Amino acid sequence: MVREIPLNEWMKNLGMDRLEKNIDRRSFLQGASKIAGLSLGLAIAQSVGGFEVNADPSFSDYPFTLGVASGDPMPDGVVLWTRLAPDPLNGGGMPPHSVPVKWELATDQNFRHIIQRGTELARPDLGHSIHVEVSGLKANAVYYYRFKCGNEISPVGKTKTLPPAGTSVSALNFAFVSCQQFEHGYYTAYQHLAKEDLDLVFHLGDYIYEYGPNEYVASTGNVRTHSGPEIKTINDYRNRYAQYRSDEHLRAAHAAFPWIVTWDDHEVENNYANVIPEKGQSVEEFIVRRAAAYQAYYEHMPLRKSTMPQGADMKIYRDFEYGNLASFFVLDTRQYRDDQANGDTSSPQTAESLDPKRTLMGTEQEHWLFKKLDQSKTGWNVLAQQIFFAQRNYGTATKPKYSMDSWDGYPAARQHVLDYAKSKQLNNMIVLTGDVHASWASNLTEDFNDRSSRIFGAEFVGTSITSGGNGADKRADTDKILGLNPHIKFFNDYRGYVRCRVTPERWQADYRVVPYVSATGADISTRASFVFEKDEQGLKQVSTTQVPLGLQLSTEVEEDRNKAHSRAHLKQLEKKGAKVPN
Ligand SMILES: [Fe+2]
Fold first, then answer.
1. Cβ neighbours for 139, distance < 8 A, ≥ 6 positions apart
2. Other C-beta atoms lying within 10 Å of the C-beta of residue 357
3. Looking at the predicted structure, is the pLDDT value of residue 40 above 60?
4. What separation in Å is there between the alpha carbon of 45 and the centre of ligand 1?
5. pLDDT at 578
6. Confidence band (pLDDT; 50, 70, 90) for 17?
7. Contact, 474 vs 554, CB < 8 A?
């Protein structure tokens, strides 16, 4: 049973009571001309559960500007999402009343066969978002949904339930995506993804970026601009999600499939670790900021009410069973981690990074994962998570360099997973990854330093939707990195997503890429396809294609991404007038 938290308690918990009142009044006044016709029938407003409720609102502007979404599917249900925002970039444009939103679920897209309907209150303390948890549905079935409020009706969304747990399933088709810096390019990849034939989509983080306008600049230049400065308050984060959802292709991709989402760092701030921020903020300030960011994330994602944040905490790790075919363990490698070692610089392993006590998932999540893996009876065990899992040396053989923000920065925590795989003789682990704005495919072995070590799985790293700009087929350091890390079999630096076709014996990953994102209209290609089977033989490349129109070779290297983040952070510090570190 989810406790309904009164608005006042929420605001106090989040330290935002005073802030929120000011913002609401300001945004309401700013949007006054727009919402003059949004009478909201104050005369008929009534109080329900401590909230003023307007039972019959009318809107001067369309309230379903952020589209619709569904997510966290189960065999008998799914979450349906929308948020009312007639003035999306200015706090939403809704007055501080709750508004009833009707929803309908049908078996056909024309809604001739409506099988369930209901009403959910869109509450001001949740940004007038709603999360409808529909149950009693058929397994493995397609449904259509829409919302109504006043005289307004939302776009139609399509969704699908999971097959019954444990039952025989012959195939699953899904895609995974990550990293969609709005300024770095157009969401052409989503335009193509929305047309795929998929059962599911996973988002592995960096759904938004926190930067002010043009602070984080793509190597091929920014083509759109963040509205508003670096985001810190609940209102800032809401406006940023709204700006990202202003993109029709992102809305179309949400409306086409159920999504299972997790976050990485930029939903709050670059490379934060638990409650430790980048320089220039106190931990106390950052805890308030993280609370605002987590709340806005909840408000904009099709998540279950059990995920709702409690103050500055939000439990997002969870699992999904797809028949007897695959178990998906959706991880959170941000909220519970120890601070990055070695000053979060690219560095060799040191006593600090090798400390066996260092945690990435936190003890509770790690115990949960191994318990769930113990119980798993499915053909594949999948970690859907944020950061590069396999060892990846991008220095030299004698002077190695590793990312301290990835699993390489937490080698003891990774060793727990490797030891588990070895002790259980697993041969079916798949890791899905985002974060690094490039496509990679890697064998997972019991010991990355031993070429004869047993292969127990594969990691598929998806490139970004836009982050990093156009990219190229190959980077200046591609050959060096592949040579230094023989378990890594593929690299590509175009933007796109990964489409997977999973059957009981075979996992195929298709690297779907566009040659540019700095202009609209790019075609999609499958740059390469890899197959992994449970034969301990590792990845096999089954197709490769030349991508037309793209840059073939860039001058970029792995550390350029970190440098672009550092430049962005420097701009932020300069704006604050803070002492700039050397
Ligand atoms: Fe990213």
1. 75, 76, 161, 162, 163, 164, 167
2. 7
3. no
4. 44
5. 61
6. very low
7. yes
CB 81 within 8 A of CB 69: yes
Q: What are phi and psi of 363, to 5 degrees?
A: -60, -45
pLDDT band at 21 (very low <50, low <70, confident <90, very high): very low
Quote the CA–CA distance of 347 and 483 in Å, as a whole number: 19
- Cα(471) to ligand 1 centroid in Å equals 14
Residue 577, classed as helix, strand or coil, is coil
* Cβ atoms of 132 and 90 closer than 8 Å: no
Residue 266 C-alpha to ligand 1 middle, in angstroms?
Answer: 7
CA gap 399, 406 in Å, rounded: 18
What is the whole-number distance in angstroms between the Cα of residue 68 and the centre of ligand 1? 24
DSSP 422-434: HHTT---EEEEE-
- Helices 248-256 and 234-245, packing angle to 10 deg: 80
Q: Which two tokens stand for residue 164?
A: 């019954």
Question: pLDDT per residue over 471-492, tens digit each?
Answer: 999 999 999 999 999 999 999 9
Q: How many whole angstroms separate alpha carbon 511 and alpha carbon 440?
A: 9
* Pairing relationship of beta strands 380-384 and 326-330 according to DSSP bridges: parallel
Give the CA radius of gyration of the chain: 23
Supply φ then ψ for residue 514, to 5 degrees.
Answer: -110, 145
Torsional class of 38: left (φ above 0), alpha (ψ -120 to 50), beta (otherwise) = beta
Distance 2 CA to ligand 1 centre (A): 32
For residue 176, give the DSSP letter: E
Q: Lowest-pLDDT range, 7-16, 86-95, 214-223, 286-295? A: 7-16
Phi first, then psi, for residue 261 (nearest 5°) are -115, 150
8 A C-beta contact, residue 299 and residue 238: yes
Q: Report how far ligand 1's centroid is from the alpha carbon of 311 (Å).
A: 25
407-445: pLDDT as tens digits: 999 999 999 999 999 999 999 999 999 999 999 999 999
Burial tier of 264 (Cβ tally within 10 Å: 0-12, 13-18, 19+): buried
Angle at CA 61, nearest 5°, toward 252 and 81? 40
Q: To which residue do tokens 């001739």 refer? A: 112
Whether residue 438 contacts residue 471, with contact meaning beta carbons closer than 8 Å, is answered with yes
Determine the Cα angle at 508 with ends 381 and 418, to 5°. 35
Of 177, 456, 158, 168, residue with least CA distance to 323: 168
- Looking at residue 116, its amino acid is Q
**What pLDDT, on a 0 to 100 scale, did the predictor assign at position 9?**
42
